[in-house]
Amino acid sequence: MENSDLKVFKLLYSGEIKEQTIENGNIVEIFSNFSILVFYIRKNKHLYTWIGEDASRTLKNYIVNMRQTFSKEYPHLRVLRYITEDSIDTMSENDDFFSDIGISKEKIVSYLESEKSRHEEEFKTKLSNLKEQADMYFENKNFERAIEISKKIIKMATETKHKKLIEDQRAFIAEAETRLKAKSVLEEIREERKIIKEKYLEAKNNNNKITELYNYVQSFKKKYEQYLDLPALETTQALILNVEELWSEYTSKVKKKDQIKEDLEKINTLREKGKDSLNKGALIDALEYFEKITIKIKKLANKTRDNA
Fold first, then answer.
1. Cβ pair 1, 102 in contact under 8 A
2. Calpha distance 237→204 (Å, rounded)
């Protein structure tokens, strides 16, 4: 069959059909697993729509109106018979389609398999490059970029229906998002650490600030409890220990002072009772009170010396 008997069109994403040029009569090179082609045979006025195995759903949606679209765009080309060929594997070698376009099924299948093989190799190369980029960004803690690259991989995997790859990349993104959140929290913690350090230095020189510092650190620990054991926060952990040591020393001194105050109040009570006994002439009772006072004063002196 001469080329003048055959016209080939390609379905575009706009829904239009564009005539293709057959170079050197090599029809097979027009075929693609991703394309939808329309063939018009002048001699018998047959119109075929051929659907590539991996053609997109967007293109396939136009097929239902293909005969009307063709007749509208090319009214001078009369159609007597319209056929849709949607699976070359199920087509017979004796199908009118092959004889009408002048090429064997075997040749078309061989060409499409070769294209698929080339596409798979390109896919693997592109996938390998993207995975390498995603890993590099992940290792460099640029989790935003790692997630962005991984989403491109998922898009590729979705187009090729690669379920295992999709699952793998979703797991990768989940971990990257976790680490991205942790990275953001670490930055918050480091800013908080600056505030704690300032308060700590101030409290070391002003006991009145110690309680405020301690309460601030307790709130800080509660808020970031799940992150504080991370190795990256060793300096923050050390600062918290310093604050808690300062608080322990401070509360110990306050407790001793309170105890001394309590002891002085007891001594004063005994002194008043001794004076009252003297006034009443109860010398023995007065002596007992004063002995108790002497014992407490000695104990108090020892406590004060230990606290110095």
1. yes
2. 18
